[in-house]
Amino acid sequence: MSFEEREPVKRRSGKVGPIEIRATRPSDAEAIAAIANLPGFRAGTLRLPFQSVEETREWLEKPAPNSTRLVAEVNEQVVGNAGLNRLSGRRMHIGQIGMGVHDDFTGCGVGSALLAALVDSADNWLAIKRLELTVFVDNAPAIRLYEKFGFETEGRLRAFAFRNGEYVDAFTMARMRF
């Protein structure tokens, strides 16, 4: 059965109980790969379909220098992941972030918990002045989340990525700490 033929996911509503945020570990590879292959998660990222567990494990085992990688767990199930990559040289005051939440757990506070942890790390531990990200223009829930944390739209990137047979635009957003 293709992704398009699947029945719509029944989304949870409201909070889901305690959300634990922790650093990733190589044993998370299977759970993260499974989430990355969900149609909703993938639509909000630059990932291609059919990400393998092996690719994910290699990504987890060889983190980029100056990166922070987190997962969110609910009842010991990985339900989201996020990362912050600090730039270097004359841009060492900047962190770039990316994140995503399991299709069944959107709107339950998981994204807020992940983003709060990234912002806390940037502000209180890494002395990062500028956090930046890109988000597809049709991802209204993510845009609202980023705005809630002080991100502002700085520009529109036309034909930013090819997704589901067409080119889509993205906003570039940033949060400054003064």
UniProtKB/TrEMBL annotation:
Residues 19-174 form the N-acetyltransferase domain. Keywords: Transferase. The keyword Transferase applies. GO terms for molecular function: acyltransferase activity, transferring groups other than amino-acyl groups. PROSITE patterns: GNAT. The keyword Transferase applies. It comes from the Bacteria. This is GCN5-related N-acetyltransferase. It comes from Rhizobium freirei PRF 81.
